[in-house]
Amino acid sequence: MTLSRAGTAWRSPALFMPPPLRGWLTDPHSLTARIRARCRHFSVQPLRTGRAALAADEASLVGCGRARAVSREVLLRADGRPVVFAHSVVNPRDLHGVWHMFRGVGSRPLGALLFADARIARSPLAVRRLDWRHPLHRRVRAEGIAVSGPLWARRSLFMRHGRPLLVTEVFLPAISELAP
Known about the structure:
Layout: H1 19-26, H2 31-36, E1 42-51, H3 56-62, E2 70-78, E3 81-90, H4 110-114, E4 120-122, E5 126-130, H5 135-142, E6 151-160, E7 163-171
Antiparallel strand pairs: 1-2, 2-3, 3-7, 4-6, 5-6, 6-7
C-alpha cells in the first residue's frame, strides 16, 4: 500500500529535506528509542484520543470513512521540551481486534508496543513539509507551541494481520536541540 496518493504532497524521503532533519525523517527504527538516547528524561503527553475527522488520504489508508476513524494525538517530550507531535489513526473496527493495544495506551509510547511485536510490519516512510494551512500544523499551534514556519513530518503504516495503523510524526522546532 502506498503512502503517497495522487494529489498529496507525501513523498518518499529524498535529498530535498533540510540536512539537520534528514536523519530524523529517514530513520526507519523507533523514534521513541532515538529520542530517549538523546535526552535524560523522555515522556509522552497525551492530548486527545477518540473519534476524529480525517483527511481523505488518511481515511483511505486505514480503510474507513473520513468521520469514522479513531485517532490518538500526543506530544513526545525530551527533558520537558515538546519535540514531536504524533498523530496515530486506526479503523474503529480494529480496536477490539488486531489493534486492541491502541485502546488505553495512555502515556506509554506507542512505538514501544509497535516495535516489540514481530507480527507488525512497517511500510516505507513518506515525508512532507507542512505549511500553516495543514491541519496538523494547526493542531501543533493550538497546543501553544511557537512555530514560525513550516514543519516537517513523516508517516508510515504499521500492518498487523493485514490491518493498518497510520502513524504521523511532526517534528517540532526543539528537535534541533537534540543531537542528530
